TrEMBL record, chain A:
<dbReference type="GO" id="GO:0005096">
    <property type="term" value="F:GTPase activator activity"/>
</dbReference>
<protein>
    <submittedName>
        <fullName>Guanine nucleotide exchange protein SMCR8 isoform X2</fullName>
    </submittedName>
</protein>
<dbReference type="InterPro" id="IPR037521">
    <property type="entry name" value="FLCN/SMCR8_DENN"/>
</dbReference>
<dbReference type="GO" id="GO:0032045">
    <property type="term" value="C:guanyl-nucleotide exchange factor complex"/>
</dbReference>
<dbReference type="GO" id="GO:0005085">
    <property type="term" value="F:guanyl-nucleotide exchange factor activity"/>
</dbReference>
<dbReference type="GO" id="GO:0005737">
    <property type="term" value="C:cytoplasm"/>
</dbReference>
<comment type="similarity">
    <text>Belongs to the SMCR8 family.</text>
</comment>
<keyword id="KW-0072">Autophagy</keyword>
<dbReference type="GO" id="GO:0006914">
    <property type="term" value="P:autophagy"/>
</dbReference>
Automatic annotation (TrEMBL), chain B:
<feature type="repeat" description="WD">
    <location>
        <begin position="193"/>
        <end position="233"/>
    </location>
</feature>
<dbReference type="InterPro" id="IPR015943">
    <property type="entry name" value="WD40/YVTN_repeat-like_dom_sf"/>
</dbReference>
<dbReference type="InterPro" id="IPR040102">
    <property type="entry name" value="WDR41"/>
</dbReference>
<protein>
    <submittedName>
        <fullName>WD repeat-containing protein 41 isoform X3</fullName>
    </submittedName>
</protein>
<keyword id="KW-0677">Repeat</keyword>
<dbReference type="Pfam" id="PF25178">
    <property type="entry name" value="Beta-prop_WDR41"/>
</dbReference>
<keyword id="KW-0853">WD repeat</keyword>
<feature type="repeat" description="WD">
    <location>
        <begin position="290"/>
        <end position="321"/>
    </location>
</feature>
<dbReference type="InterPro" id="IPR001680">
    <property type="entry name" value="WD40_rpt"/>
</dbReference>
Length: 835, 451
């Protein structure tokens, strides 16, 4: 749109002919003028978005893309790009090459109601004027307060994105410069040769080469060499981030490896995926490149099709120096420069994904942001965290940090906001694997205990699209969908080997043991709750199968279940209650809880089952999958605990296997559909029947211990006051927090003090000890917490969760392998309730 | 309070030890906190039963392991404990239990290895199958004798320092071991007069210098270890039709016996538990629980220092038996297993009339295995380990004690509890009621609390 500086300048001069133009246009084509309502000024921005803009040598400032696609429709992005790009850009004037730092600006346009955080950064391009390509990212919002309060966080996060872009870019630039130096030296040699020989005008192949050589002098070339060497000297010391390099290299390797895949099938699939990616990429972003010339458009996102990605790390091939091309010294800046993907090979994807995450994170309500920021401190130390319904409720060890001091590898509070929120994989703290995850990396971290089991992260409850654009992850999610289809719709027999193979494509797995690891890594890519559901389901299946099929394939059984566990356990997704309330929708945890309450009079018993750690099986008929899943989703709101191997939730198994004792260690809430053909073995066999509660939605029956306490009944009764779930769920959160605080006191004042009173050998009989302990516990709850005896198991269980987490954490750090999970056997008498 | 279905059952927490992929047939206690399991998946594993960690895996056999044996080092030496495994693949392997290393692979047995026994006096072990072999600790074959019986030897029981009994179908053969220097000889000594009409299912030592054999037809014979003559017979079912039962089910078959103290034998008779008074000629039944399980009881033993008599069965359940829950202020503590079990003092037991039998009370039911429970091993306060046909080992723990331990542990970690005692103090927090030795139930309990 802008031809150059002149146009920009013209743009800023008030156009005197404006009115006359309007006169020429038919009135029906003109926008209907509405007098702005001064009390109801609406910002042109409906939803926050991220704008990436560059200063194009040909066009001047221009928006490159917006995240997400389609936002800011009312908003003049060109105008805005001009504005933000003209704020800065000065570095070019320097004579010697320097690397400029990023600059940040906050733009507050009160009049228009547009507020933006603008982050300028510079990429380097050997073909560009002064070797620089100015870019900037802007977070645009209509909420001034958000801008002011989140400035620091934005700065942090955008700096990381900028680092992603610029590191890859510098690597490329350095490579280019090195080649350039070789070219120059080669040219110099040629020139020197030419000087010795007399010119041969007769052999006039007036090639470009000869042209170049005739126009250049040795001194010119020498000064160019000096300049290039200076640049090399400046850039070299900046490239010290080995981790980042490794990651980029892995991405590159993976890409080329998948390209050179021997199997045709694999190749085809890869192509397919790539094709798909291109489609989505184009759909989502490319269209955004406003007023692209067709040629430009073709070249911008050609990364996958005709563009041969350069190899950043290929040291094997020696570079063949060429005589300098004329374009270089003639300095005609009329050539199309490389696009963002080409400028930052392998880094741009990562950076864009981060941008998407940033957008998703900051686009939420300011209150949510702030509450979440406050609650973010509750996550550490992770072992002390109590969650109910995956929502952060309370941290029992907050501010004490003693366990962390004890050197048991507790993760210390991290300042990385998004990492907390989006799990290490999504946003990729630099030591993690993110989309370029490596098998080895994961393994290492398991053993080093750096990010051990209790790595907790805030996560979107219902953003099943999290990371949908990243190549690998997208793929795995699509596979996940596939899997769901298999189970839900067609009711195929589950075929682990097939699923396994699918997961393997594109990964660098070689041997079978590695393979199972790959799978595990894929699965543990728990970037959102849905994914977790899936994860759990899968592992549940794996386990069920491993128990049933009597070890037919070694690969599957010998290594995978434990690997799965150890891997899954590291990715934990929790959300803040604020976020939960903010983003309530039909797939949120707790959705439909009022309906369940309405349907089941025995709801207090159901909730008590969940809150006392007794596994609950929701059993439906063959065609009740939807209903079962809905009930599981609703009841999940009351399920304490979040560590996946111990507190897994399985929405619905349509081809269920008999529950085994082993499963009790892992799931707490399980949906099941009876197979259509009755089998001789019951789904809940006698070996586990005593320890689980069963809600049979077909027969409207609940088998569970009777509940005699008050707290849960109150929560249940209060539902009548709240007409909608939007209001009832926040109330539930409050009540659960109240419950958690009681457990907190119980934990600190009873659990931690009580063992000392059992020190003396007063108890010759173990039964007596058990009775005294139970009595004391009940008494404490009654007198100190005014908790009814019927509610004591709830309080005990909540504090037990934290104790277990701490113990597991310690055990995991002490022994590198995982310990078997202990299963609490609830021997309370069950009754049958009619719903 | 919420109703508890099993108020007397302390085992409220389990750890599931996953390793085996087939039936686990053998389980043996190494020391107070470790056990070894072995089974049809041809491997054996060493477990820490405090936290359920798998410490070592011993794999190398090609066919199911039938029997395992531990060779403790000689007192005073610093050698590691050795594990001997005998398998259907005709191999006997000797392992270092600490390192998991296979020290010896013995192939000279030449037939499926059915049973193993150690004779600590000579520091040798013997293996039984098609024939009998004696081996040195290093795995050197010392001697080999043919088995007079037609079938494989199923049980080996050392009865005196240099004497052991081998059970083969319904016959019992006594052998003596002569050991001098490097040579060792097994000599056939006596074929015990045929008493059993069906295969022997259990062969045990009884504390007062005798041993007992029980067979499929229900007969239990008490033999003197010295004279090798039958002292008494119990539970004789005369009619063949009767002991065979319907479809050769053998409803009275003896699967397992224990003799925790002088004068009594606890026997698993079919689905029922019988406690015999072996001091009297006719073998009075002190206690009896008819049809304690749905199917045959495979193993029985005392748990938790005698607090429970546990039985496990093919029906997948482990049941805990004992006397009915004590009344309030009933602070009687009993001196030996039988008293604890029946809730009667020895005197009262002695005075029981012949027709009076005590019926034990079901104190708890440990359900968890999805197949037959093969056997279990008691670790006192640390709980017990059971193994079964589903390939699982389940470690049953005292829920309250675990809870206390965790609390204390975390208290120490976080510094909230300012006490200096360690977790182990808690472990030994309750005084054992008694410990049953092979010879005699040793009394360890102090006086019961005065109030």
């Amino acid at each position: 749109m802008f031809g150059g500086y002149a146009d920009v300048a013209a743009y800023y001069h008030p156009n005197e002919e404006d009115e006359s133009i309007e006169e020429h246009i038919a009135p029906d084509l003109l926008p209907i003028y509405e007098k702005p309502d001064p009390w109801n000024l609406r910002s042109p921005i409906e939803k926050d978005f991220v704008l990436l803009a560059e200063f194009s040598e040909l066009e001047g400032p221009r928006p490159v893309l917006t995240i997400p696609y389609g936002t800011g429709g009312q908003f003049d992005k060109n105008n805005f790009a001009v504005k933000i790009m003209s704020v800065d850009y000065h570095n070019i004037s320097n004579n010697t090459f320097t690397v400029s730092d990023d600059t940040q600006v906050m733009i507050l346009e009160n009049r228009e109601g547009v507020y933006a955080y603008v982050h300028h950064f510079t990429l380097y391009d050997i073909h560009a004027r002064g070797f620089v390509r100015p870019f900037c990212m802007a977070y645009v919002t209509a909420d001034e307060n958000k801008m002011l309060s989140a400035y620091e966080d934005m700065l942090n996060e955008f700096s990381k994105v900028s680092k992603c872009f610029s590191y890859a870019n510098k690597l490329l630039f350095l490579k280019d410069i090195k080649h350039h130096i070789k070219n120059l030296e080669h040219t110099k040699e040629c020139l020197q040769k030419l000087e010795g020989e007399p010119p041969k005008p007769n052999e006039s192949d007036s090639t470009d080469e000869n042209d170049v050589l005739s126009e250049l002098t040795i001194t010119q070339v020498e000064s160019m060499i000096a300049e290039a060497k200076h640049i090399e000297k400046v850039i070299m010391p900046l490239l010290t981030d080995k981790k980042m390099e490794l990651k980029l290299k892995q991405a590159e390797d993976r890409f080329f490896m998948s390209r050179s895949m021997d199997f045709e099938e694999e190749h085809e699939r890869e192509e397919e995926i790539v094709q798909e990616e291109i489609n989505t990429e184009e759909k989502k972003e490319d269209v955004n490149c406003i007023k692209e010339t067709p040629r430009r458009k073709a070249s911008v996102y050609s990364l996958y099709s005709d563009y041969k990605p350069c190899r950043l790390f290929d040291e094997t091939r020696e570079y063949q120096p060429q005589i300098l091309s004329s374009a270089f010294f003639r300095k005609k800046f009329d050539k199309l420069l490389r696009n963002l993907h080409e400028l930052c090979p392998w880094g741009s994807h990562n950076a864009l994904r981060r941008l998407r995450c940033i957008q998703r994170y900051f686009s939420r309500d300011l209150a949510t942001l702030q509450i979440e920021k406050e609650e973010g401190t509750l996550i550490d130390p992770a072992a002390g965290l109590l969650t109910i319904g995956r929502c952060v409720t309370l941290n029992f060890m907050q501010h004490s940090g003693r366990l962390a001091d004890g050197g048991y590898g507790m993760s210390l509070p991290s300042n990385n906001l998004l990492r907390r929120r989006l799990s290490e994989d999504t946003l990729g703290s630099f030591n993690s694997s993110e989309s370029f995850y490596s098998i080895q990396d994961d393994r290492e971290s398991v053993h080093s205990g750096v990010s051990s089991a209790a790595e907790v992260a805030f996560i979107y409850a219902n953003s099943s699209h999290c990371d949908e654009h990243s190549p690998r992850n997208r793929y795995s999610i699509s596979e996940a969908d596939d899997y769901f289809v298999i189970n839900y719709k067609e009711g195929d027999v589950y075929e682990p080997p097939k699923a396994r193979e699918r997961y393997l494509t594109g990964s660098s797995a070689g041997t079978s043991s590695e393979r199972s690891f790959t799978t595990a890594t894929d699965i543990s890519f728990g970037t959102d709750v849905d994914q977790d559901l899936y994860t759990t389901r899968r592992s549940f299946y794996d386990r069920a199968i491993s128990m049933d099929s009597n070890c037919t394939s070694d690969d599957l059984i010998s290594s995978s279940p434990t690997d799965l566990e150890s891997n899954i356990s590291r990715k934990v997704a929790v959300i803040s209650a604020a976020d939960h309330i903010f983003s309530l929708n039909s797939s949120s945890i707790g959705h439909g809880i009022l309906k369940v309450f309405q349907e089941y009079r025995c709801s207090p018993e159901i909730l008590a089952t969940l809150l006392t750690g007794r596994p609950l099986v929701v059993l439906g008929g063959a065609k009740d999958e939807k209903a079962v899943t809905a009930i599981v989703t609703a009841l999940w709101l009351f399920l304490p605990g979040h560590t996946i191997p111990n507190h897994a939730v399985v929405p619905c198994l349509s081809k269920p296997k008999q529950i085994k004792m082993v499963d009790l260690a892992h799931f707490k809430l399980l949906g099941m559909c009876r197979p259509e053909r009755r089998t001789s073995s019951p789904l809940v066999p006698s070996s586990v029947r005593n320890y689980v509660s069963v809600l049979d939605i077909e027969r409207k029956m609940l088998t569970a211990p009777a509940y005699k306490g008050h707290i849960i009944k109150d929560i249940y009764k209060q539902r009548k006051i709240f007409k909608t779930e939007d209001t009832y769920i926040p109330f539930v959160h409050c009540e659960l927090l109240e419950l958690a605080t009681r457990a907190f006191i119980y934990y600190h004042c009873f659990c931690q003090k009580e063992p000392s009173s059992f020190q003396d050998n007063d108890f010759a009989h173990p039964l007596e000890r058990a009775n005294v302990y139970n009595m004391k516990s009940t008494e404490f709850c009654d007198t100190r917490l005014s908790v009814h005896p019927g509610d004591v198991p709830v309080i005990e269980y909540l504090s037990e969760i934290v104790k277990m987490q701490q113990y597991d954490e310690w055990a995991r750090c002490s022994y590198s392998d995982t310990l078997p999970t202990s299963v609490k056997l609830d021997l309370r008498e069950c009754k049958v309730f009619k719903a | 309070m919420v109703e508890d279905a099993q108020p007397c059952n302390l085992y409220r927490e389990v750890l599931i030890l996953q390793h085996h992929t087939d039936i686990v047939r053998a389980l043996i206690k190494v020391d107070d906190h470790r056990c070894v399991s072995a089974g049809d998946d041809c491997t054996a594993a060493l477990w820490d039963i405090e936290d359920g960690r798998k410490l070592n895996v011993f794999s190398g056999h090609k066919l199911p392991i039938n029997c395992i044996l531990l060779l403790k080092p000689e007192p005073g030496s610093y050698d590691d404990i050795l594990l001997i495994t005998g398998a259907s693949d005709k191999h006997i392997k000797v392992w270092n239990i600490e390192t998991g290393q296979c020290l010896e692979d013995i192939t000279e047995h030449n037939s499926s290895v059915k049973c193993l026994a150690s004779l600590p006096a000579f520091d040798i072990f013997i293996s039984g199958g098609e024939k009998l072999c004696a081996w040195s600790r290093k795995g050197k074959q010392l001697h080999q004798v043919e088995n007079p019986g037609k079938a494989d030897i199923q049980f080996l029981l050392p009865i005196k320092e240099n004497r052991f009994v081998a059970a083969c179908e319904e016959s019992l053969y006594v052998y003596t071991v002569e050991y001098c220097g490097d040579s060792c000889e097994i000599k056939f000594f006596k074929h015990l007069f045929r008493q059993h009409r069906e295969a022997i299912g259990s062969l045990i030592n009884v504390p007062d210098g005798s041993f007992a054999s029980g067979s499929l037809d229900g007969l239990i014979v008490l033999w003197s270890s010295h004279t090798l003559s039958a002292i008494r017979q119990f539970n004789q079912i005369k009619e063949e039709k009767e002991f065979r039962g319907i479809d050769n089910h053998y409803p009275f078959s003896i699967q397992h016996m224990i003799s925790p103290e002088k004068g009594c034998i606890f026997a698993a008779v079919g689905n029922s538990i019988y406690v015999f008074d072996i001091t009297k000629d006719q073998g009075r039944i002190i206690a009896k629980k008819q049809d304690a399980h749905m199917s045959k009881i495979k193993h029985m033993d005392f748990l938790y220092h005698g607090l429970y008599l546990a039985t496990c069965s093919e029906d997948g359940a482990i049941k805990l038996w004992g006397r009915a829950p004590a009344e309030k202020n009933d602070k009687d503590y009993f001196m030996n297993p039988l008293e604890t079990f029946t809730g009667l003092s020895s005197d009262k037991i002695r005075k029981l009339k012949k027709s009076e039998t005590v019926e034990p009370c079901l104190l708890g039911e440990c359900l968890g295995h999805s197949g037959a429970v093969q056997l279990f091993v008691d670790f006192g306060e640390e709980g017990f380990v059971s193994c079964g046909g589903d390939g699982l080992l389940i470690l049953w723990k005292d829920g309250v004690l675990q809870n206390l331990k965790r609390s204390q542990f975390i208290g120490e970690m976080t510094g909230a509890t300012q006490s200096s005692y360690t977790c182990s103090t808690l472990t030994g927090l309750s005084r054992p009621i008694f410990t049953g030795d092979d010879d005699q139930a040793t009394l360890r309990t102090e006086e019961s609390p005065s109030d």
